[in-house]
Amino acid sequence: MGERQSDGGLPGRGSRHALLDSDVEALIVASLIREGVDAGAEQRAVAAFRAARDAGALRTGTRRRDDWRARERRYLGRSLRTTLSVLLASLTLGGVAVAAIGVAGSPDEGTKDAPERSPAPSSAPRDPAQKPPRASHGPGTGAGSSPAHPDRPDPAQDTEAHCNAYERAGGRGRALEATAWQRLVAAAGGERNVTAYCAERLEEPKAGSGGSGNDGPADGDGAPEANDGAGNAPGNGAADGPDNGAGRSGSEGKRSQSDGRPNGRPE
Amino acid sequence: MGQGTEPRRGQAYDGELGAAVARAQQGDEAAFAVAYRFVQPGLLGYLRGLVGDDAEDVASDAWLEIARDLGRFRGDGAGFRGWTATIARHRALDHLRRQRVRPRSSALEQDVLELPGPQSTHDQALEALSTEHALELVRGLPRDQAEAVLLRVVVGLDGPAAARVLGKRPGAVRTAAHRGLKRLARQLGAESVTDDGPRTLGEST
């Protein structure tokens, strides 16, 4: 319609000083396509089909080049989903990993460093057994240190986040950010164990969440691990919270006083 | 019809074609013949653009392979056109390679010689121009442009499918098709200036 206007309204391709794509296309179609097929050629093709069919060729496997199922759309959809989840995972895990590296290095170092570096309560749930000795010192300060790093997730949550991402990625660990994946593998003790490890990991917090929830914000931050949280909830919670801080009480005193207190005590 | 781009050739019957292919894959011979009739004209047109007069032979070769490998194919009607075009293209390129090794008077030169001159009767000349000469012009395009135009226009593939047949990125194929069409439009348009003369003359007398 509109295209004809440039032709000065003349019908057909009488004046073709400026041929339009559609005209050229029509011309090509007219010049290259002849409707109808040669009967002999068709018969030969059908005979070839019959022979192939009878020889069982219809049951041969599909090669990549034979698969013409809406590939582009499928790929687009998948790549979009993958991109989004990878983006999400790397945003979450990237931040978590960086923070966790700064906080704890590896769990073992974490305990050594604990006194000086005051790594958030993160090390507490990991090594609950090592805490009690320090429990007796200044009870007040410990919990206070957790608000000092309010947005720094501890390794347990870290692992949990990795596991969540791992499950979201459908068990394809490679889809995770490399660092996150390696940490997860390290935590699980081998690539093969990741699935089982995560299954275990992701169940625990649910069981323990009730307990840690009772403990109030400060402890909740520090003790997402099931057994710890659950055990603490009723009676030990108060005692355990302070534990964490015992070693740091001296150095961290000021800070914990300034910003820690409101949430510090479960009571 | 008024829209800038009419539905591409072939797309109108893709549903039927897909159904026929599916039945053929179950072993239905008649369905295979139906698919053949749907696909062959466009395929042959594409091959004409590639290998000229040898198109029929090359198409026959291609159909032998299509018949043999039909069980492997996965996809719908549009996919089938892309798949068959890929097979036909490989056969055509083989053919051209053989020709290059053992050259003979190429179809191209022959066609040029047989091209009706401007002295022919105007109506005949115009008619001939719209067929033989258009084919010649298409074949005169750089290969990538010619193939992009043929796959899009004659076989009726969409951009991504044409790109897959050619093993190129869709953007490159889109550009090539666009340039090819523009070039054809220029050539045809330039010629039509000289054609218009005799034609108007013929009509007015």
UniProtKB/TrEMBL annotation, chain A:
Q: Where are the transmembrane segments?
A: 83-105
Q: Where is the composition biased (Low complexity)?
A: 117-127, 215-246
Q: Where is this region: Disordered?
A: 105-168, 204-267
Q: Which domain of life is it from?
A: Bacteria
Alphabetically list the UniProt keywords. Answer: Membrane, Transmembrane, Transmembrane helix
Q: Where is the composition biased (Basic and acidic residues)?
A: 149-161, 251-267
Please state what the protein is called. Uncharacterized protein
Automatic annotation (TrEMBL), chain B:
> What Pfam families does the record tag this protein with?
Sigma70_r2, Sigma70_r4_2
- Domain (RNA polymerase sigma-70 region): residue spans on this chain: 39-100
The record ties this protein, via SUPFAM superfamilies, to:
Sigma2 domain of RNA polymerase sigma factors, Sigma3 and sigma4 domains of RNA polymerase sigma factors
Top-rank taxon: Bacteria
What InterPro entries does the annotation carry?
Answer: RNA_pol_sigma-70-like, RNA_pol_sigma-70_dom, RNA_pol_sigma70_r2, RNA_pol_sigma70_r4_t2, RNA_pol_sigma_r2, RNA_pol_sigma_r3/r4-like, WH-like_DNA-bd_sf
User: Can you name one GO molecular function term for this protein?
Assistant: DNA binding
User: Which keywords label this protein?
Assistant: Sigma factor, Transcription, Transcription regulation
> What sequence ranges are listed for the domain RNA polymerase sigma factor 70 region 4 type?
135-184
Q: Tell me the Gene Ontology biological-process terms attached to this UniProt entry.
A: DNA-templated transcription initiation
Where along the sequence do coiled-coil regions lie?
A: none
Q: Which NCBIfam families does the entry link to? A: sigma70-ECF (TIGR02937)
Q: Into which family does the record put it?
A: Belongs to the sigma-70 factor family. ECF subfamily.
Q: What is this protein called?
A: RNA polymerase sigma-70 factor (ECF subfamily)
In its UniProt entry, the species of origin is given as Streptomyces paradoxus
